[in-house]
Amino acid sequence: MSRPSSPAIRTLIGPGRYVQGAGALGRLGEHLRPLGSAPLVVADDVVWGFAGHEVEASLRAAGLPARREGFGGVPSAREVDRLVGVVRQAGADVLVALGGGSTIDAVKAAGFLAGTRWATVPTVASTDAPTSALAVIYTDAGEFEEYRFFPRNPDLVLVDTQLIVSAPAHFLAAGVGDALATWLEARATVASGSATMAGGLPTQAAAALARLSWDVLWDNALPALDAVRDHLVTPAVEKVVEANTLLSGVGFESGGLAAAHAVHNGLTAVPQTHGLAHGQKVNIGSITQLVLEGAPTSEIRDFVEFTTRVGLPTTLTEVGLRPSDTEELARVAAAATVPAETIHSMPFAVSAADVAAALASIEGFSRRVRAEAGLPEPVPFTGRH
Ligand SMILES: [Zn+2]
User: Fold this and answer.
1) Residue 286, annotated ligand binder?
2) Strand-strand pairing, 134-138 and 144-149
3) According to the annotation, is 123 in a ligand binding site?
4) What is the DSSP string of 176-195?
5) Which pLDDT value is given to residue 7?
6) Residue 26 known to bind ligand
7) Which pLDDT value is given to residue 355?
8) In CATH, what class is 18-164?
9) 240 assigned binding-site residue
10) Cα of 350 to ligand 1 centre, how many Å?
11) CA 113 to chain centre
């Protein structure tokens, strides 16, 4: 589902400024001041509870008002429209998303409609939403509805790694799932010569960032997760946060999405998967894409083994489904292959039947790989974490 564009043009887009490090939140006011004089921070109560004090202090130190609006939890059209009303009433000129991917997507969409600038301050490194010029809009029930594209990326992306390591490690693991897909999808998009979410052919730069993200994660994800469980900022954590956020963010947007994210979107069509993180469902999409590609068995095995160690789902069981759920899998496959989906950026034609078969096949494959590697059996997903 790429932007309409001339397919022969290469495009790379990215955020105006990317700032990352332990304690970066203390610099928020200083980086916001060039963007506007009337910021409005959007954060849910939980996030505001642990980060609000520092945000207020930083804004005040920069001579900016510290105003905050809550977030309803789902980036739906209704929530976006509500935020637009709040922004207009408040006379805000720069919107700041403080939170996870849902808050960030809602703020980008609201900032665009309200005519303000926008900045993202992710408190978890669980998606590659913070840097991009698009938002994923869901129904109020949590089903994928549409991609919305904006004429610019966030003016500022500010990531405080001290905040990231304060969050439970499963957020970082989900971000690894989202970021690993980036290279698989970019290489497919390059191979097919398809358009990217940035509205043109992939550049070499975006493909290189996608590949770098993949390499950084294979080297650093497991030690970074160990460190985050102990709430420690280490060089491995800094590298993985940058891979999940910046490398994957620019890599997916200007490198191209393909089957993995289309399968993710398809999975949201069945209620069994609601409550799973974006990156968890994307990992099932990555394995499905590898199967569809007929990738070497050793490559699929290594990917399943590694992502199981990361703590990502590698079986249908772990996303609330079974291979025998033929009706549900058919629905997922149908949603993943609608004409507008990015699965048609694969270098070969993919039908709904192909997707359903690939999805059903990963259960047995992954269970065998896990048994051979001495990894635990999958635990069924039965609802919200
Ligand atoms: Zn994603």
Assistant:
1) no
2) antiparallel
3) yes
4) HHHHHHHHHHHHHHHHHT--
5) 56
6) no
7) 98
8) alpha beta
9) no
10) 20
11) 22
CATH 3.40.50.1970 domain range(s) in the chain: 18-164
User: Could you tell me the distance, in angstroms and rounded to a whole number, from the CA of residue 212 to the centre of ligand 1?
Assistant: 17
Confidence of residue 142 (pLDDT cuts 50, 70, 90): confident
Spacing, Cα 65 to ligand 1 middle (Å): 33
Q: Residue 284 pLDDT > 80, yes or no?
A: yes
Q: Which two tokens stand for residue 192?
A: 């097919």
Alpha carbon of 62 to ligand 1 centroid (Å): 34
Residues 242 and 240: their CA atoms lie apart, in Å, by: 5
Rounded Cα–Cα distance for residues 173 and 350 (Å): 29
Q: What are phi and psi of 375, to 5 degrees?
A: -90, 155
Q: What is the DSSP letter of 324?
A: T
Chain segment 287-304, per-residue pLDDT in tens: 999 999 999 999 999 999
CATH topology of domain 169-372: Dehydroquinate synthase-like, alpha domain (1.20.1090)
Q: pLDDT tens digits for 90-101?
A: 999 999 999 999
The pair of three-digit structure tokens given for residue 83, joined into one six-digit string: 């935020």
Distance (Å) from CA 257 to ligand 1 centroid = 9
Under a CB-based contact definition with an 8 Å cutoff, are residues 300 and 322 in contact?
A: no
**Boundaries of CATH 1.20.1090.10 in the chain?**
169-372
Catalytic site residues? 178, 261, 264, 278
pTM check: above 0.85? yes
The string of pLDDT tens digits covering residues 220-279 is 999 999 999 999 999 999 999 999 999 999 999 999 999 999 999 999 999 999 999 999
Is 44 annotated as belonging to a binding site? Answer: yes
> Per DSSP, what are the bridge partners of residue 118?
95
